Amino acid sequence: MVSVAIVGAAGYAGAELTRLVLGHPLMELAMVTSSADAGRRVSQLYPALAGCDLVYVPHDAARVSQVAQVAFLAVPHTAAMAIAPGLLEAGLTVIDASADFRLRDPGVFSAWYGTEHACPDLLCDAVYGLPELWRDAIPKARLVACPGCYPTATLLAAAPAIEAGIVTSGHVIVDAKSGVSGAGRTPTSGTHFVAAAESVTAYKVGAHRHTPEIAQGLEDLGLTDVRVTFSPHLVPMSRGLLSTVYLDIVAGMPVEDAHAVYAEYYADELFVTVHPPGVMPSTSEVRGSNRAHIGVTVDGAGTLVVSAAIDNLVKGTAGQAIQCANLALGYEETTGLDRPAPVF
Amino acid sequence: MVSVAIVGAAGYAGAELTRLVLGHPLMELAMVTSSADAGRRVSQLYPALAGCDLVYVPHDAARVSQVAQVAFLAVPHTAAMAIAPGLLEAGLTVIDASADFRLRDPGVFSAWYGTEHACPDLLCDAVYGLPELWRDAIPKARLVACPGCYPTATLLAAAPAIEAGIVTSGHVIVDAKSGVSGAGRTPTSGTHFVAAAESVTAYKVGAHRHTPEIAQGLEDLGLTDVRVTFSPHLVPMSRGLLSTVYLDIVAGMPVEDAHAVYAEYYADELFVTVHPPGVMPSTSEVRGSNRAHIGVTVDGAGTLVVSAAIDNLVKGTAGQAIQCANLALGYEETTGLDRPAPVF
Amino acid sequence: MVSVAIVGAAGYAGAELTRLVLGHPLMELAMVTSSADAGRRVSQLYPALAGCDLVYVPHDAARVSQVAQVAFLAVPHTAAMAIAPGLLEAGLTVIDASADFRLRDPGVFSAWYGTEHACPDLLCDAVYGLPELWRDAIPKARLVACPGCYPTATLLAAAPAIEAGIVTSGHVIVDAKSGVSGAGRTPTSGTHFVAAAESVTAYKVGAHRHTPEIAQGLEDLGLTDVRVTFSPHLVPMSRGLLSTVYLDIVAGMPVEDAHAVYAEYYADELFVTVHPPGVMPSTSEVRGSNRAHIGVTVDGAGTLVVSAAIDNLVKGTAGQAIQCANLALGYEETTGLDRPAPVF
Amino acid sequence: MVSVAIVGAAGYAGAELTRLVLGHPLMELAMVTSSADAGRRVSQLYPALAGCDLVYVPHDAARVSQVAQVAFLAVPHTAAMAIAPGLLEAGLTVIDASADFRLRDPGVFSAWYGTEHACPDLLCDAVYGLPELWRDAIPKARLVACPGCYPTATLLAAAPAIEAGIVTSGHVIVDAKSGVSGAGRTPTSGTHFVAAAESVTAYKVGAHRHTPEIAQGLEDLGLTDVRVTFSPHLVPMSRGLLSTVYLDIVAGMPVEDAHAVYAEYYADELFVTVHPPGVMPSTSEVRGSNRAHIGVTVDGAGTLVVSAAIDNLVKGTAGQAIQCANLALGYEETTGLDRPAPVF
After folding, report:
1. What is the pTM of this model?
2. Which residues from chain A sit within 8 angstroms of residue D195, using beta carbons?
3. What gap in Å lies between CA D138 and CA D144, rounded to an integer?
């Protein structure tokens, strides 16, 4: 049993973390922090968590350190790098769901986030928490940088082909579709129901901050001369993320062979399902769960088209954070994530 | 540990039962039956249940009896009354999610369902499985008739006021709103996305088969001269059911007093939350969970307006069936239902 | 040809007015005002109105009077009563879509809107603009108060029965369901896609400001001892409003007779359709159009249940304003509203 | 004034054609045919078309020829090629919304549609009806093959760059997203609200029948060595289609230059809007209208990303058919399509 604090607990990612920690048999939720919602009860802000009478308190590193052994950070980017060092010094394990420790190169970070990194030394200590691709480092980690939602789905979709050496070009086209919760809890003109319903739209094409994270991941997988074309789209659903990835592969490879690469790669992964050749996943299959479902095909132009579906708030954020914490703490990796989610 | 069969497992209610049994620590899923989908794997029909490699088989009472101690029936009405007797004779505990054993009066059944009841003798043995209102009989039950989704929400909304004796008229107006999954898995012109989206509509006003079940429940709660006006509506969401109930109450009662009746009535119920006076629940609060959330107000006309939100497939069907099975089997009532659902 | 200004043109009602005026063969759009969006082009804020290069300007009564003969007010309540007098003095016809001139009793206005009425003398001059019920006064009007969206649907649903003298109680229960655009363009936690999707919820039960307007209308129709129980609900769709109204009627009246009352009442109305007995309308039928579709039934409890569907932004706001302007200007009532809307 | 018949009028495309013909000032709707819904009134099947008392009749070439000068075909593919010859012989102008006359090469047709073409001779007579790209031939046409919804958006997105000679590779990647109405009116497991809501999924990747039509169009625009990777996706909305197209262009071209190519190309097109550089369209902007809205950007990898939004049933089907008919009949091209659609 480990005592847990969630920092920035009132946003969507924080709320899903709260939900998962409350249902985790080996975690005890000791503290939830929020600057904007301090003083409110969890069950007041999220009636789905009825029965949780914890009250949001402002973040205070000392108080967090007193009550918790593990801290999940669900704060906005640039806030996490201000908070993590203190918690690490106090001996906590830090599982960061923000973007602050994902990019190893502080220059890339400052180029995309518009500010210098506050603690570049920690970047080499941070472990990128995508267990299916880089599981080994996580058990030793004290600071885990959980991947972004788009990189999670995209790298899961690209990894088997790259590692199998069948990808022939470093130019990877990623056309991804996300539900509206990916935009966060703050109401904006773009997240208004009327704006988002009956609408699909591309946004931040070529300018989304997950682009360099995807590129770094592709390089880590062994792809060379990496160039990423990344077009995120907003679709009218609350949850769910689908990343459709286009890869040039060796000429003439039949879809069955490409599929076999994927099926074998993920054969032992409990959270990943590879559908039969040509069968593509839908995001509703993974709603509320920590699963990633993957479909693979090769079209008449010889392009490998891979589509990966996740719940952006679970495998894309909070669930993966729990999965990483389980590994870091030496628990069974699936603990607290093993019950099936509603069937849609 | 008990061995479980789900009869009619391929519909929405059956699939949610499958999900909940798979996640239940004291149940083992031994068999899933389906006439239409026999031969397919569960994970094929419901990819959310990836990892469940059970194959649907046609219903066969003898085979069910060999492998299971408990049978959940999720078949259409009139099918359950053909199946239940055999399973009961074979010694199984039967938890029926259909309508066949809900109405105690076989004449009322035949009037609303257009056919004679096949086993009217069993109607007195069947226990109506709404634990928060009639918990005591369930532990002794071998045949539980789980309430319909509309009656569940409506009776939870009406019970405290009726039992407190503050309701002054037997005419109860129920304006209820259901998500589209309530119409079942078979595709129809009415469940087509294009027909259901951007649309709200009343249907079967005064003619819905849950009407006599609501009336019977209101009478059981002690209301006299019961007349039910019931208007179900279809709203564009997959899950969720909201029943807004209008009750004439003693003149001049302030909302705080009415609210106190509800808060006290449900004070010890783990699955029911009564919101503060005037705060109404939304169905998204209970999506995927076995919870019922209730809001209470009294308006300027002196009418008690109570709104109850449930997930039609969980507290309205499969979750309540598990809850009843837990009671019937002597398990903790919340077993397998105790982890919080996604926050929306 | 008449020259038109829209005051408060950047909100949803204003935008639909803009759309309808641009498509009106006898109106010319001379000016659109907006305080918050001054300086932006119409087509920039509403890309659906591509080609409209008018720029929002701050409201200025003198400038409006110079360019326009008719002013539509789509400003928030309490703003219209500050603007209307000046425009009327300058000789304009004012069609007000706000709430400021709907209630004839300034005491009722101040009780519900929390402020004294700024120009109570104008209340008797204002004509309530619901043509199907009170058409005669509109042609003579210089100030038309367009009804609220809920009162429009509710009064259309109740009028025939009341005027036919078959309603036996002054207690009218109104359970209404609105799409999210009814909450306006300003983003809030309640209009966030994630909050509104997969959710239905009652709000402001007994406290919604359309309550006294409904009551006034019912009295005007001849109902006595009026008491209104009004429960608005928010449903996950952009447009559309359904009002289901419960009326006590003379005992034993068959549904065919009740239906005949409605069919006859609206026989000559071009914008109203009465469905066959027991067939209820859906809001998608009237999406984008100025139509009201009505369904009528009588249930086993002897209650008359009437359901009326409108588009809250068209027949509920902007379309009805155009309809009233057509009448006030001596145009054919359907001008600019006569082309069918998309079929869903 | 021309007399019009709609053959296959009861499907979604037929219903939108019905709507547009009813609102067209120079067309008179003489006949609507439907095999499945013969005997029903239009207003019964589509209550949005209240007031249209035409009754669907089975198709009969002789009767159509007696009453109509123009026939719109909205029948399934392979049905149109059985119907068109007779109508042409009888002297009618035929505007075909099906796929039967889009592909000029009968071999390509039979390869993708699994049957020989019934009247290959007519393929050279048929004019491909995408006015913005190939307007000149339409006025002389007696048989217009209206493009598919995906090809319409995709070719509009690709044409300016190809014709400007800046595209450097024949491999075009098209990632498109369609609302559910694209799947037609027949209820299926995939169009069930519960299946489509909260879900995005790729389907028929590399196997969709619009693929050869896109390829033919790209070749007609002058692209050489054409290879099309086409991934259609289903998104949870009723209407709308977004095609995001990835094109390799000459190295180093700034986005402003690429944008200028598009702005100039469509400068005089009344139905096409090119947004400012980097501003991407959403489908809700064009809901219910015959418009196409286009956004253009060039990303860090040097890829030209163009996103085109249309309403799949209007510019993607029925609206474009009217536009083509206007041209074929010598009417103003925008007749009946010129009023703005609802703003969302």
Report:
1. 0.98
2. 282, 284, 344
3. 7
